[in-house]
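ZP: hey, is the flavin-adenine dinucleotide complex queued? I don't see it on the tracker
AM: it wasn't, my bad. submitting now with these inputs:
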Amino acid sequence: MQRFNFPVIPPDPALEDLRAELQAFLKEEREAGNYRPEPECWMACADPEFSRKMGKRGWIGLTWSSQYGGQDKSALERYIVTEETLRAGAPVAAHWIADRQHAPMLLAHGTEEQKLDILPRIAAGECYFAIGLSEPGAGSDLANVKTKAEKVSGGWKINGQKIWSSGAHICHYMVALLRTSPADGRNRHVGLSQILIDLNLPGVTVKPIVDLSGDAHFNEVYFEDVIVPDDCLLGEEGGGWKQVTGELAMERSGPERFLSTYITLETALYQLQDKMGSASHARLGKLVASLRTLRGMSWSIANLLHRGISPEAEAALVKDLGNRLENDLTQEVRALLNDLPADEWSEDMHRVLNIGILRSPPNTLRGGTTEVLRGITARQLGLR
Ligand SMILES: Cc1cc2nc3c(=O)[nH]c(=O)nc-3n(C[C@H](O)[C@H](O)[C@H](O)COP(=O)(O)OP(=O)(O)OC[C@H]3O[C@@H](n4cnc5c(N)ncnc54)[C@H](O)[C@@H]3O)c2cc1C
């Protein structure tokens, strides 16, 4: 039986200046009325102007080389930036996914020309990416991807459909998992490749999908005879499955998997201050203890990534526990607020709680469902 690897890492005082700078910037932006905090801000709150401001301050592309517009800093500094922006419910969705997973992917598999052209624009907060994995018949079971890329002279011809593509309506590119050759009956993971697609090409149609809260932040994306050049194949032809698995560890491991609803708690605490009864104190104590534990686990994953280790099983476990906590947190905040009549809540409290409730159901689906993550955990423990 394998064990999970969660080294205990003490906080690093050297990172606290960066945290203070972030906090000051976020406070200033909020007080100037440039944004209103919201739960799920990294998914649902896209503000290109805000992303450009983050880019100007060097807070996007922290981990990659200055040759490509980055800051030559570590994954731990990046962690501080993501943690603080999430805590503040800031509108970071436009650049989030490109910064988190597609820039590292381009660094690993892109051509020199792509790196020089695209990475500085991502770092400037001006170029956004969508994840093209899910399809109507392929969500958890990604090996069932049907969207095809056929080899044609000088490039690839793409036909098919992706779904739930977050932010695709404002994105410049998608990295899509596509079938480039038929599946082998015994090994369904062969024949899949990752391809970089410019979403402004002829033949691409993006149709927003409205969610429970009335927002449209994810999309259907259709491809009809879309032609991309040869160098848009990222990595090895047929090697898409292995690449995607590595990408998912990056996608699942960040603090967005347990802090998405944190702003709801913070807003409630400002409201409640000295009005909480003893039962609420006990509830709050439990919540804070869970947050503290998950933060420790997530920080330890950031440190593993920093050391070049790809902690897939640990990331799956933190995402599962974190998503449960995010959803419990919203319900617990509702219970804490019983100590204060609703007509004494601020407008912000009503707004943040409403949005939090309506946006929380997808937490346990996006980036891998709870059941699928538990399958990964069980395999790690040798239980299946
Ligand atoms: C807010 C949001 C944003 C998203 N953004 C993106 C995005 O940007 N790009 C993208 O590609 N996708 C995105 N997705 C899609 C997401 O990754 C899928 O919804 C998810 O992987 C599940 O796939 P599915 O919806 O097809 O459900 P299915 O895979 O059909 O699953 C249905 C149910 O069956 C269960 N199940 C399936 N397989 C197993 C198994 N092997 N063992 C046990 N139970 C199983 C699941 O847990 C689930 O309860 C997003 C989804 C949401 C909700």
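AM: back. Strands lie at 129-132, 148-152, 155-163, 173-179, 192-198, 204-209, 218-229, 233-234.
ZP: great, adding it to the tracker
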